[in-house]
Amino acid sequence: xxxxxxxxxxxxxxxxxxxxxxxxxxxxxxxxxxxxxxxxxxxxxxxxxxxxxxxxxxxxxxxxxxxxxxxxxxxxxxxxxxxxxxxxxxxxxxxxxxxxxxxxxxxxxxxxxxxxxxxxxxxxxxxxxxxxxxxxxxxxxxxxxxxxxxxxxxxxxxxxxxxxxxxxxxxxxxxxxxxxxxxxxxxxxxxxxxxxxxxxxxxxxxxxxxxxx
Length: 213
Known about the structure:
Helix content is 42%, strand content 13%. By secondary structure, it is of the alpha+beta class. The protein has a domain at 55-202: D-Maltodextrin-Binding Protein, domain 2, CATH 3.40.190. Strands 1, 2, 3 and 4 form a four-stranded antiparallel β-sheet that branches. It is globular and about 75 Å long.
């Protein structure tokens, strides 16, 4: 009797069972679960991947996209820091690949231009609704490859971001008794400057005191 052919997910699960620390296999299984609609399993595998391989930045990117699709937006915001980190020398990250929303792509392109980096993107049109939207917008070349300059044109570009949760580039919001502390980045294309800003936001109470030790 002919054995039924194994699915891609089954083959990946068997490989991960035999090679539990293989980053590429863990990533492939997480993406496969996400694509098949098993979001809980995908989240579990992404967490397992990033716990074992915190340097695997493309995992953050795809995990963030999944969280965004599930409207868990605060958790998903770290996707931008992963994209920016790919262009910052010293992070150990050189390329990030994935799919996501067009607005996030434009914001990332602005950051890339400030860092003399590059982004190559194209539209993913996989539903009738997107087909209608593209037609309404007057886009004729659906397979066009967009560069950073296409997505974020102009000479005077300023990019600013503040970490919400810990990411590859910035720390998340930290709370203490008298207020909060945030980490931000500000980049300008014209000046070629990248500024990292640490801010203390004091609670608006009369009894708040600041001590510099």
